[in-house]
Amino acid sequence: MNWTWQRFAELGVDNLYDALQLRCRVFVLEQGPYLDPDGADRQSWHLLGRDATGTLIAYLRLVDPGHKYPEPSIGRVVTALELRGTGLGRRLMAEGIAGCERHWPGRAIRISAQAHLERFYGTMGFVRVGENYLEDGIAHLQMLRSP
């Protein structure tokens, strides 16, 4: 597995295309239509996970503190459908948390998680903050991970 961190301006067209294609396969085709490019990509670190053949199979972004939430946030967490259940999502989140700790040491991390993934994120140290809400027709909840 090859992990690469890049700011938006460093992504280049090929990485950006691959990231948007994977995000659209999951967030638009699997989960229903919505506008994926939400304006936060430019204020984010992007983590791209490629397999040995160079295919993008995992992705997430770290949104800078103060842009979406007061804390840095992890979002757009996505793994290729055919690799779910292999532990790739856990490895992806571990890399994301490590990136947050490296870029913003001592800061809490906030996520807007799909409600059915609360237990998964809980195993990564995130705790529920508030009640469920609908985002793009899917139940979500905010979760916070203390430093």
Set out the fold topology.
Layout: E1 2-7, H1 12-30, E2 44-50, E3 56-63, E4 73-79, H2 88-103, E5 109-114, H3 118-122, E6 127-135, E7 138-145
Parallel strand pairs: 4-5
Antiparallel strand pairs: 1-2, 2-3, 3-4, 5-7, 6-7
Walk me through the structure:
The protein is an alpha+beta fold and 147 residues long. It has one domain: Gcn5-related N-acetyltransferase (GNAT) (Aminopeptidase), CATH 3.40.630. It has 3 helices and 7 strands; from the N terminus they run E-H-E-E-E-H-E-H-E-E. A 7-stranded mixed β-sheet has the order 1-2-3-4-5-7-6, with helices on both faces.
How would you concisely characterize the structure shown here?
With 147 residues, this protein is of the alpha+beta class. It contains 3 helices and 7 strands.
Structural descriptors:
7 strands; globular; about 150 residues; about 35% strand; about 25% helix; alpha+beta; Aminopeptidase
How much helix, percentage-wise, in residues? Answer: 25-40%
Number of helices: 3
Number of strands: 7
The run of helices and strands is EHEEEHEHEE
Low-confidence stretches: none
What percentage of the residues does DSSP assign to strands (E)? 25-35%
CATH fold descriptor = Aminopeptidase
Shape: globular
